[in-house]
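Pipeline run #58 for the internal structure catalog. This entry was flagged by the ingest filter as a single-chain record with no existing model, so it goes straight to prediction. Upstream metadata was stripped on purpose; only the residue string is passed forward. Reviewer on rotation: M.T. Logging verbosity set to normal.
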Amino acid sequence: MRIGILGLGRIGAFHAETLSGLDAVTSLVVADPFAPAVEAAVERFGAEVARSPEALLAAGVDGVVVAAATDTHPALILAAVRAGLPVFCEKPVARTMAEGTEVLKAVADSGVPVQIGYNRRFDAGFAAARDAVRSGELGPLHTVRSTTLDPAPPPAAYVAASGGIFRDCAVHDFDVIRWVTGREVSEVYAAGGNRGAAYIRQAGDADTTGAVLTLDDGTLAVVSNSRHNARGYDVRMELHGFADSLAVGLDDKLPLRSAEPGVSFPSGVPHDFFMDRFAAAYRAELAAFTEVVAGRLPSPCTVADALEAGWIAEACTLSLREHRPVRVAEVRTG
């Protein structure tokens, strides 16, 4: 099949490389206003070039990957849907939840599948944890802990436009908590601090946050995030039930060191970047998209799924600002 890629920045170029290695993909068609990125895709992957998004949609592609700037996501998703083309779009759906809600309304009855890029759903560890929960082997859950710690903060320009740490970072934790547990979040309480990069504080954001989520069955989920984790990129989940406990991310590349005498675990080179930690998940995610394009699989992460994680992020942002518990229903609109 022919896959079009709109946007060849860091993640778009990474997706191009991944797609070029999938048996189901016979050719790539790319569009990006930055000529050197297009030239690199042509040289590395033999990609065809479209001069505009409109030209790409008319180039006989079977599906479209949207990896352009967040502000362009709604228009590009809707253009692909109007063209009848299955679309994969990196999160978030839109810059604001109001825009995201409009996208949901527009695609709801289109019959065209839209997949949003939450890669942890395709990580082997998180998938095994979901199976353990759904099979009942952990018993009823009482506590979930989810962690995303970045090795260094993103650039100031990114922070200024990201919408905040809950919307651009913790939202991955929120999505995977919903996906693994099968539960919805009813209430949040968030706190945050700034002891690192000054430009994060100046942007009105926090560089380190914690949030307690109450799920709809009473399970507590504790989410920890930071822009500053000197040892590496740390993504983990713990699931504690009345029958057993399970951890995701407890491997030899875990970026922690033990203080216990004689303990050498973990002894591997720590994960240092999300593309390292989730390389296999990204491949599985895009392989799933080819199945969506072929009509053999429904979207494994719909616009509605993505918006649910977004509402949790909105509630946490409000909770941090007002120093109080916030029910998700309070922020939900549309």
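catalog note: The chain is about 40% helix and 20% strand.
catalog note: The mean pLDDT is 96.
status: ready for reviewer M.T.
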